[in-house]
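Q&A FORM
Asked by: J.P.
Topic: structure of Glycosyltransferase

PROVIDED:
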Amino acid sequence: MSIVALLPAHDEERSIESSIRSLRSSASSPHRVVVVCDNCTDRTAEIARACGAEVFLTQDNRARKAGALNQALRAVDFGDDDLLLIMDADTTLGPEFLPTALERLRDPSIGAVGAVFGAGPTTSLLETFQACEWSRYREQLRSTGKVWVLSGTAALIRGKVLRQLSEARGDTVPGVRGDVYRTDALTEDFEITLAIKTLGWKLCSPIRCSTTTETMPTWQDLWRQRLRWYAGAIETLKTYPVSRVTIRYFLQQALLLLGVIGMSLYLLATVLNTALFGFHPHPAWLLLGLVFWAERVGTAWRGSTVRQRFLSALFLPEFCYALFLQAVYLASWYQVLRSRRVEWTHLKEVTA
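REPLIED BY: S.T.
REPLY: Here is the structure written out as tokens.
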């Protein structure tokens, strides 16, 4: 059994060296590290070779990350007993990721082990918001153990699973036969999660399987990223039938939509009531608000920085951040219902 790391990269000269070094420093280092250079115009390939990695150049790929990975997986020789580490080129792997993932894969029913991602050092308020959000997601995984998405930042997947997936496309799961990743999916990590679960495999994301990835530097970048995430999840679910695997995802989307609509109506009613009758808070609502505040602080406390804890304690800034994300979620539904395609925009293209 060998571990082959595939790092899809599009103009990642700023981060590719640290990503490769994090793999090399792991206690269970991959046997091969392959950087999949997809339409790169910078020094990504040169830096990758200097770091000792192999470089695979895609040919005429127009299907972004999914298309690049499909080409690389066809070119890389791997067997059913081998393991493929699919890892973003802007991500660094925690030292315990591979040893922990290998230990979990001793269970033959587990098909893949995903990452629990976090943010690196934060400097801006927006970056701190995202760091707090991901801290809460980590706590959710710790408490429930349920894997909703096999994180695109890093996932160790059995070669057998990938082969089964390519053979099942167009039959048991949606897609084109021979492809591992669906090229029409906006969120390839969410889609492959549904596909692997549909094939009957279990997934896990242990807390020790940590990665550090980049946050969005501007509100515009964050809007576009989350619009793709939210709309991608909705569009992917539309292509799957209701089953024991997908039913919880359909229910999740329904509850999220109801929650966002409910919050919008609550804020509207509060504004109208204050405008007509003045602000007279009821003790019951104040108590409920205190409980909500305690929950927000508590879920962001473990493993957070002092800056993140202070921001959570202030409550109102994070509440405004949550409203921003809810606005993106509503916008994603608007795009899907209007059959408008959300485009995948690279971070460098947005901020240039």
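FOLLOW-UP: The radius of gyration is 21 Å.
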